[in-house]
Amino acid sequence: LEPRTLGPLDHDLSQRLERCMSIVTSMTAGVSEREANDALNAHVCKGPPQHEEVCLGLFTLVLTEPAQAQKCYRDLALVSRDGMNIVLNKINQILMEKYLKLQDTCRTQLVWLVRELVKSGVLGADGVCMTFMKQIAGGDVTAKNIWLAESVLDILTEQREWVLKSGILIAMAVYTYLRLIVDHHGTAQLQALRQKEVDFCLSLLRERFMECLMIGRDLVRLLQNVARIPEFELLWKDIIHNPQALSPQFTGILQLLQSRTSRKFLACRLTPDMETKLLFMTSRVRFGQQKRYQDWFQRQYLSTPDSQSLRCDLIRYICGVVHPSNEVLSSDILPRWAIIGWLLTTCTSNVAASNAKLALFYDWLFFSPDKDSIMNIEPAILVMHHSMKPHPAITATLLDFMCRIIPNFYPPLEGHVRQGVFSSLNHIVEKRVLAHLAPLFDNPKLDKELRAMLREKFPEFCSSPSPPVEVKLEEPVSVEMDNHMSDKDEGFYDNAEAAFSDDEEDLSSRGKKREFRFHPIKETVVEEPVDITPYLDQLDESLRDKVLQLQKGSDTEAQCEVMQEIVDQVLEEDFDSEQLSVLASCLQELFKAHFRGEVLPEEITEESLEESVGKPLYLIFRNLCQMQEDNSSFSLLLDLLSELYQKQPKIGYHLLYYLRASKAAAGKMNLYESFAQATQLGDLHTCLMMDMKACQEDDVRLLCHLTPSIYTEFPDETLRSGELLNMIVAVIDSAQLQELVCHVMMGNLVMFRKDSVLNILIQSLDWETFEQYCAWQLFLAHNIPLETIIPILQHLKYKEHPEALSCLLLQLRRENWSLSQPPPPHPLSSQAPPLSSGGALVGRASPAPRALPSASDSGCPCSLRSSSSKLAQLTLEQILEHLDNLRLNLTNTKQNFFSQTPILQALQHVQASCDEAHKMKFSDLFSLAEEYEDSSSKPPKSRRKAALSSPRSRKNATQPPNAEEESGSSSASVRAAGAGGRAQRGPVAAPANGRRPHLFQEEEDTKPKPTKRKRKGSSAVGSDSD
Fold first, then answer.
1. Is 4 helix (H, G, I), strand (E, B) or coil?
2. SS3 for 165?
3. What is the pLDDT of residues 812-847, one digit of tens each?
């Protein structure tokens, strides 16, 4: 895309908007304004497609050409025949799906356009404003988010009369900005914004309280959070003591608390991106495999102190909006209680933890079975139930909170709160979420005081006449919650690493049959009769007959024929697309065997590959390859695949395999991108990572087979992805590593490139030992200049990164360092960063060149160049700074390093020829040379012994020393130090990594690094004695 355009939007949308813009530009360029209007109107009158082209073209010009925005908006208002409906729909689409990918100029223009739409009173502009408010993230005080919050608030404030005409907009604006007030404190800018938000919310609450009443009980929760602000203290007094002052229909706070909050309010405080990720985790991720997704979500949205307030929004959303179907509840999909448990245990603030627990129990306090849903209260009881065995501290703190909130929430309404909690527990037992509560309330793992309090508060639920039989709405699989937590109640919120992970094994689960990470236990598959009866009744008669034939098919060939007939029927014009979901459920059940076992043939030949893609289900792929992408039938098949993908995630890597293996699909790998965009994920990078992860878990051979084509066909998604490389090196063996190295050396595979290799290698420092060695082997197979990764030195620590250091040392040893002509100017910062083991590494490993710059060269850069590439220029002052840093930092090895005769001779040479300023600046360093000079004045016998202490001196002991040798030795020492200085300073001048953001992997260089996993056998690689 050109710099002036919308940024990295999806290719199809971007291309379409560019095309519409070029149509409009061609009609209006070089003509008068009147002629341009006539041309646009004439084109619009040709039909709906032309009308849409002009509207979208003018819309795109408004976003990309600020100077023409006013004129283009005026033209848009004149030519629009549908009340701007096309433009409003496109704005909503961009806000919901692509806002994060917009360039800053386009974001500014989008706000300007919405302001103009509101000024013009365009019908539907209120919906766009609400979508804009949804993009304002809670717990985020970055400049862009604050700018968006203030911009939308300015529109609503300026157009107050227009806002008052829409009840839902009033309620949504009050809910949004009441929530944001909590985040905006500290700086003067935030305080000013906070005051504007306070004034805005108070004016609407006092003037339009009945419209705000539709928010329900969560309005009280938000008002509690801001109750200490003086303006809201006055409002609280009216709510409690004088409700009629706010509205004659308002009877008191109980009226609010007994009203359930609508889903649309709970959903409005999550950005579309957050909502997509949560829905993905609760519908696609298997329980026990969620840690990587939770880690990503935490790094992206929950890593800062300000983001702690977001946890309440997430918990309220999960309880009130995410209500899984029975099919999901009975599957091994990640249950809601596990996500909520993770959110609770990763709180780093006691206040945030208390607010999060209140958000979890909020619907319990005034629960009414007639008005409220069991799904709103179910997660809390299941978190307590499932935490009891592995982590009783979680259960204890939640039960304690439940007991104490009854008298403390609002003392005048204690009776109502007690009744609400009792009704919740009673309803849980009636609906058999848990058959009995006695095993939970009277468990010996709880301390005596808590059990006594539970018996006092809830005597009805503390005795069980018979052994309890558990019946759960959300049935977990056999994997236990494996988050590691302290059993101390007061400390466990501080454990930021606590997560429902699969990395640590609970002591109580020892001896049980577990599924390990990379080598799952192969269980004998018992073929059961497939029952698709529930789905057949929902299909048309003709389609139902074909599905039954498919079920009865005796061989693969017969099934393929029937499958082709089904595809043909789907592609008919009168086919009801609503049946795609039911058809996908049938196919998923009928072809379960397709997704078991290995896909790749044992012996890979053209014939065996072609035979392996002859399965009936692959006929959908084959038909897809034979179609044009702009065909309506193509979209229908993509929709069918998307439905299948929801029910069977393995379909993704099966499609990749088909596109790689089938002759009919040669050159069609780009179809996978269309498939990814048609799924609920809607993003190529995220979909690709998910599918490669599923492939990694099922079939490592297939993963290696797909790797070359994946890296070749999707370089933008793969070459910058440390996540994908880690997936590969985490499971391959030495033979598979050798195969990948051969592919690289033959030119069939490129896994690194200059602009991203450094970032990926830095990420690899936290991987397992074998994984790191594999990554370095693959890197060394590429012909990438070593200088590209020299900046990694500042990230290396001698004791913590033996794998990277050993690989880097061996590679440095192979480099042929020599003097060369200076490369193009690339000056280093004169402020040398603190030296660590990285500097020591180069100090020890760099071979010594044979020349030394004189003092007259101190202002002129000298350079080191390897046989393959040029390094940055180094001045004499920088070399001396580096040596001085070595002197200060090499505490253990300083005596060995600075006792070497060549080093001391070099310092003597430099001291004799440099100016007074350098002598003064590096006086401590030159004092080492003076000590050497003193020792050299001793009797000849001692001097000979001292000279022989250097390895080089011992080697040349039979040759009489002369001035030339001393000069050469001096040169070697300083030049070696210069190489170390360059390596240490490299990152200062390293280019910024300009990678574009993706759905599940954004701006990795700014994300907090995860805690390094314990390496196996790392102690054998290096030791302190080195």
1. coil
2. coil
3. 877 765 434 333 333 333 333 333 333 333 333 333
In the numeric block, the tokens 């907009």 are attached to: 169
CA distance 333 to 475: 9
Contacts of 839 (CB under 8 A, 6+ apart): 793, 882, 885, 886, 889, 980, 981, 983, 984
Per DSSP, the residues of 983-994 read: HHHHHHHPPP--
Tokens of 110: 């989008």
> Who contacts 155 (Cβ-Cβ below 8 Å, separation ≥6)?
111, 114, 115, 118, 129
Q: What is the pTM of this model?
A: 0.52
pLDDT tens sequence across 396-446:
999 999 999 999 999 999 999 999 999 999 999 998 888 888 888 888 888
Bridge partners of 333, per DSSP, are 286
772-785 burial, b at 16+ Cβ within 10 Å, e below that, comes to bbbbbbbbbbbebe
Count the residues in the chain. 1026
Looking at 48-160, which runs of residues are DSSP E strands? none
Q: Show the DSSP H helices in 432-537 as ranges.
A: 438-441, 448-457, 533-536
Which long-range contacts link 893-902 to residues 24+ away (Cβ below 8 Å)?
893/840, 897/843, 898/928, 899/949, 900/950, 900/973, 901/932, 901/946, 901/947, 901/949, 901/950, 901/952, 901/953, 901/969, 902/848, 902/950, 902/952, 902/969, 902/970, 902/972, 902/973
The residue to which tokens 């604050």 are assigned: 146
Is 688 within 8 Å of 655 (Cβ atoms)?
Answer: no
d(CA 41, CA 24): 11
3-class DSSP assignment, residue 871 = strand
User: How far is the C-alpha of 550 from the C-alpha of 467, rounded, in Å?
Assistant: 47
**DSSP result, 534-602:** HHHTTS-HHHHHHHHHHHH--SHHHHHHHHHHHHHHHTSTT--GGGHHHHHHHHHHHTGGGGSS--S-S
CA distance linking residue 331 with residue 323, whole number of Å: 14
